[in-house]
Specification:
heterodimer, A: 289 residues, Pyruvate Kinase, Chain: A, domain 1, 6 helices, B: 132 residues, alpha+beta, 2 domains, 5-stranded antiparallel sheet, 29% helix, globular
């Protein structure tokens, strides 16, 4: 039986752990609200943008004049996977889920004889897939210094990717991130961004004049589209991370509470046992006289 | 009022303005244009410039840098990469943009060179126009 002092120490340490997890949960809750707000504020832009781009893409279609970003390079050989995760841990299955999805995709592509290149955003995901896929890493984007994700962050990531595309380094680019559904559910998602894949827009109704012409506009908008999608993904990821952390820390707080209860019962039992023992010793000592 | 239309100005980070207006002057890539109610549906790309809105509540000027405008008979949405009131525009932000554009123009070659030069010229003109 562990002695009383040990038990007391353990109760104290679990209690302070619970304080920490509780605090982390509350911080995550506050950050989640902010992350959700910025995700919501960016939604009108993304929706409008995709609607217009979708309409344009449908009208230009797969014609010869369509920009490469829309119709692709015609090959399907080299795949670029952009794995977006968080910079910090202690957020439950968040990073694990995204890396698992990316790993499965990479394995599938490799089995099909394709070439895989990986760009990681956020160091937790990088660490998670380094052992298996480290040889395919070509770049890493560090977001440690970024306090609040802005459009410029997305733009710089997009510029890097577009430069590689223009340099003919890959044919297809896919981003991996987590869609925020609610605090307990975040769905790891893969989305192809190059060549741009749009949901078919059913006859938008209005026929627009384009100025300058459609192809020219597409050439201008598609690179922005890549940045917009990355920005949306970063924001979703931000909200998902905080949501995942919040529920993970909520669980941890509850588990710590359970543990404290159990340890307290054990502590009281052994205290009673010690008292009983002492009593027995005193009584039998007195009887022996 | 019958002669107003809905105007929305959104940037990726937030919605900048949403109001009823009577006319808006848009810095289109091929030149400025003014849109009023009943305009033919047009989609145009933007250059860096000043977007001027006239409405029942007076007029307002916004700085926009690139993006596009979707004009319908009774509504206009402008999706700009950066959008802010002229009074909120800061000299150092603009300087940073000009610096980036200068660098891009210096690095660019061939077809991209023209676009980069144009972007730089637009930004310079914008700076003169708003006077910072």
């Amino acid at each position: 039986m562990p002695n009383l002092k040990d038990l007391k120490n353990r109760i104290a340490s679990v209690t302070s752990t619970r304080k920490i997890t509780k605090a982390m949960q509350m911080v995550a809750a506050a950050k989640l609200r902010r992350a959700q707000e910025s995700a919501e504020q960016s939604r009108p832009y993304t929706e409008r943008f995709n609607a217009v781009l979708g309409g344009l893409a449908a009208s230009v279609g797969q014609s010869e004049s369509a920009p490469l970003l829309l119709r692709g390079t015609g090959a399907d050989k080299v795949h670029l996977l952009i794995v977006m995760t968080s910079e910090r841990g202690l957020c439950g299955g968040f990073n694990g889920n995204i890396s698992r999805l990316a790993k499965a995709k990479a394995a599938e592509l490799l089995a099909a004889g394709k070439t895989v290149k990986i760009v990681t955003v956020g160091k937790k995901g990088r660490d998670a897939i380094k052992r298996e896929l480290g040889e395919y890493f070509i770049d890493h984007v560090d977001m440690t210094e970024v306090k609040r994700v802005g459009y410029t962050d997305a733009q710089s990531i997009a510029q890097g990717i577009l430069a590689r595309f223009d340099g003919g380094e890959f044919d297809v680019a896919t981003i991996f991130y987590s869609t925020f559904q609610n605090v307990v559910t975040q769905i790891p998602t893969e989305q192809q961004i190059i060549p741009a894949a749009f949901e078919a827009v059913e006859g938008a109704g209005t026929v627009y004049d384009y100025e300058p012409d459609e192809v020219e506009i597409l050439r201008d908008l598609l690179p922005r589209g890549v940045a917009t999608q990355i920005f949306a993904a970063l924001l979703e990821n931000g909200a998902s991370e905080q949501g995942a952390r919040m529920s993970a820390m909520d669980n941890a707080t509850r588990n710590a509470g359970d543990m404290i209860d159990k340890l307290t019962i054990e502590y009281n039992r052994s205290r009673q046992a010690v008292i009983t023992n002492e009593l027995i010793e005193i009584i039998s000592g007195a009887e022996a006289l | 009022m019958a002669d107003t239309m809905q105007f929305d100005l959104v940037s990726p980070e937030r919605s900048v303005a949403s109001l009823a207006i009577s006319e808006v002057q848009i810095p289109g890539a091929d030149g400025d244009m003014t849109a009023m109610q009943g305009h033919v549906p047009v989609i145009t790309t933007l250059r860096a410039g000043v977007l001027r809105v006239n409405g029942p509540e007076g007029s307002q000027d916004y700085v926009v840098t690139g993006g596009f405008a979707e004009i319908n008979a009774d509504s206009i949405s402008v999706l700009a990469e950066k959008a802010m009131l002229v009074s909120d525009a800061k000299a150092d932000e603009l300087d940073a943009l000009v610096a980036t554009a200068t660098k891009a123009a210096a690095d660019a070659t061939g077809e991209i060179k023209d676009a980069a030069d144009k972007q730089l010229a637009d930004l310079e003109a914008l700076r003169v126009e708003i006077g910072i």
